[in-house]
Every structure is written in C-alpha cells, then in structure tokens.
Sequence to fold (218 residues):
Amino acid sequence: MCEKCFDKEIFKFESESDFIAFEKSLNQKAKFLKLINSKHEYLNDFHYTYTCENCKQNWWLSIPDNAWRGYFLTEKNAEDHIKNIRSSDKKKKNGCLILLAFFFIIVMISLMNSCVGSSQKFDKIKWNEREDGFYLYREEMIGDLTENYLKKGTTYKKIISLLGAPQNLNDEIERTISYELMTDYGWDIDPVEVKTLKIKISKDSTQNSFKIEHWKKQ
Fold:
C-alpha cells in the first residue's frame, strides 16, 4: 500500500451506494492503478486484479451481486478471505448433510417403531374386543396368532376355544371357518376393504391350513 493507491481494504461492500462511492475513488486513482489479467484459480469473470504502479501491490476487486457483497483486498488477504469463505461454506454444507442424515435416521426409527407398534401378541380376550362393531386388535394380532398358535393339526375344539365362534358355520364344501380381521367402510355404506382369516378343517376335525383373504374395492 502507498499514498498512490489505497490505504485501507474493504472486506465487503455494505450497500450499493458504498460500491458506487468506491468506484469513484477507484476512477480517481486510475492513473496509478493498472488492470492486469490474472490467471489465479480463485478469480472468475466478476473478479479483477489491479496493480499499483508505484508500490507494485496487487489488489483484488470482487463486484457485489445480490447476496454476495464483494470485496477489495490486497492479493494475500483476498486469498485468505476466499479460503475462509470456502471453509465456512463447506462447514455449512457438512452441517446440512449431518442434519439430513439425522432426520433420515429419525424417520427410519419412527417407521420401525410404527411397524413394531402395529403388531401385538395374541390375547384371547382382546381378540374379541370390539368398538362400534369393529374389532380393535385382530389385524395386529394375526402375525403372532398364525405363527405361534394356528399350527397344522390343531383341533377344531381348540381353535374355537382360542378364537371363539367363527363368523360362518363350518362350510361343508370348503370345510373352512372364517374370522373377520378388519372391515373398512370408508365413506360408503358398503365395505370398501375387508380382511378375513379362513381356516381349513380336515375331515378329522383338525386344522389343515389357513389363509388371509384381502378384498379391496376397485
């Protein structure tokens, strides 16, 4: 720096009027400052390099644009300034990635808890609990019921003891008994979705197989 160029640096132009005032000052010193073509990696179309022909100090000018407030700094300080900005931007980016990862983990945990929460251990009493005509827990219990209770060979008598009377009488042709798991009416007077447990009974009155029928209105 010398009396021919500038005696202070500007790390950012606070407003458009600040930059206009700076431009006037720059024009007044034009005979001492020479615009040079710099190939520095930090410079782009909105950066200019000036050199003072008196003290040979290089100055970098970055023109403000929207949120970017620009600067007018000596070459060394400009390099450090840009490094600090890039480091800050990188930290912000990494911070955003960490927040996104944290949010993703929270969502996954919530989904897993939701899946776990949607299944329940079979309970003979709760199996038949109803509210407004709808079974409250059957759909959530069906996994545990079919995995741990409805084994092939289970007697018809034990099935009735566990689940109560079926929705239908023993179908002599299909030899099945049925239990409603869920019925959804939506906004209709007729069901729009139904899930039913159907248990096939062998001739010796033991369980042969079971299936869950899921019907949904198209």
Notes: The chain has a mean pLDDT of 84. The two ends are 80 Å apart (CA to CA). The first strand starts at residue 33 and ends at 36. The first helix runs from residue 16 to 28.
